[in-house]
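chain below, 195 aa
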Amino acid sequence: MRRLPMERPTDHYDARLFKIDEQICALLEERREISNQNPGYPPFKSIESWADRYHLYEDYLKSLFGLLMNEEHFLPVVEPSGFRKYLPVLRHVEREGIIYTLSGIRQYENASVICLSIHGDDQEQSKHTHIELELGEGYHCRIDQGTSSGGNVAYGFVVSPALSDDLGGITFVFSEYERPLKKKPTGTEIVFRME
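prediction:
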C-alpha cells in the first residue's frame, strides 16, 4: 500500500529539546543493534511500572513500543517504474481445496511485481488472512495491492531490487498470518521453487 508523505505537523520546535531528541535517536540505534532488529514487546507489568515511575500514560507507552517493534515497515517505499517486460510463470499449489497460483511477474527497472491468486470454493475456505512473501536476504518484499471477491483473492507484491529475468534457483515463500505485520502465523506456507 502506498504511504502518504509526512508533513511536519507544526512549525514550532522547542530548541532546548534538541540534545534529548538526539539522545533518543542514539538509544533507538543502540536498541536495534542489541536486539538484532527483533526487539519483541515488553511485558505489560514493565510498561505499567515505567508509566508510574516516569509519569507517562500507559497507553502512550504501549503505542510507542508497538511502533518500535515494527521498524521494518517504515523502510523507504520503492515504487516500480520503467516497465520492461512480463514474465509468465503459471505455477500452482493446491492445499486443502484452495488453489494458490503464481501467475507471473511484471519486471521494472527498479523492482518486480509478483502476482499471486488464491481460489477457494467458498468464503469460509478463503477466510481473511494476511499473506507475506519471503525471497531471502537481499530482497525487500511488501504487499502493494490486494482484492477479493467470494472465495477468490489476488495480491501484488513489490520486490526490490528487481529480480533477474532468469528465475532459475529463486524460491518464493508465501506465509499466511492471522494478523498484519507477521502476527500469529497460521502454519500455512506455500512454496514455489523455480528451476
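The CA atoms of residues 123 and 149 lie 9 Å apart. The longest strand covers residues 83-95.
thats it, cya
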